[in-house]
């Protein structure tokens, strides 16, 4: 264990369990915010909610290799541990984060971990029926990796509550089902998406974008809001609303920028994530999208996701 100026830094599973054991004996609640680092205001909103609702709060910083495919940006994913710790130490005035778990890959994957799914060894977790659509179409191993690392982290920390952002809507549905089906005694809390002043959803991948591109990307949320307005207009007329008119409106708006590549726009049932042709008021839908946009000083594109909830 090491101590930053204000926060206890834990490097191993045994250190976390030792820290947690005392809190069990003292009957103190623990909030947990799992992250991959490159912290921003969205992460801070999760931490702030945990600080409000729990006696103690622990944050993990771990870039999880098992959710990356061989062709994805694992090596280039931003790693900013010193800055992350500074943020956790300085951002919260009334109450401080108590511990940060910063494990090595070998600590989380004792058998090692290959990005090639066929070469991976050990235990992995799949949430079938919720992981194959939307993000799962283009990133088929993503939720297998997410579900596996979240299961590991929940087993290590054994938190009272765990916190995720609504921006990752499909992930929230997957984790809710994971916790329910594996009977993990942790409450999943989903916190509203935090946005930049122009509406762009906060994301670690925003670091790939120039300021001009961030401003241009604000059209993504504007398009989602236009889709929501169209839904509300039709809902007031009574009855179910055809999802295709909402999806088409969103695509039309985003397509005004010919440098943007629409990977998908979908309307999904809020629990099953199945595509919905007709949106029933009272049941609603998650309208989500993935858009590829030009990176700064690169020929590659950054992949941005966002969503809006229809009631």
TrEMBL record:
It catalyses: (R)-pantoate + beta-alanine + ATP = (R)-pantothenate + AMP + diphosphate + H(+). InterPro entries: Cyt_trans-like (IPR004821), Pantoate_ligase (IPR003721), Pantoate_ligase_C (IPR042176), Rossmann-like_a/b/a_fold (IPR014729). SUPFAM superfamilies: Nucleotidylyl transferase. Its EC number is 6.3.2.1. Keywords: ATP-binding, Ligase, Nucleotide-binding, Pantothenate biosynthesis. Pathway: Cofactor biosynthesis; (R)-pantothenate biosynthesis; (R)-pantothenate from (R)-pantoate and beta-alanine: step 1/1. GO terms for molecular function: ATP binding; pantoate-beta-alanine ligase activity. It is an enzyme of class 6 (ligase). It comes from the Eukaryota. GO terms for biological process: pantothenate biosynthetic process. Belongs to the pantothenate synthetase family. PANTHER family: CYTIDYLATE KINASE/PANTOATE-BETA-ALANINE LIGASE, PANTOATE--BETA-ALANINE LIGASE. This is Pantoate--beta-alanine ligase. The lineage of its organism: Eukaryota, Fungi, Dikarya, Ascomycota, Saccharomycotina.
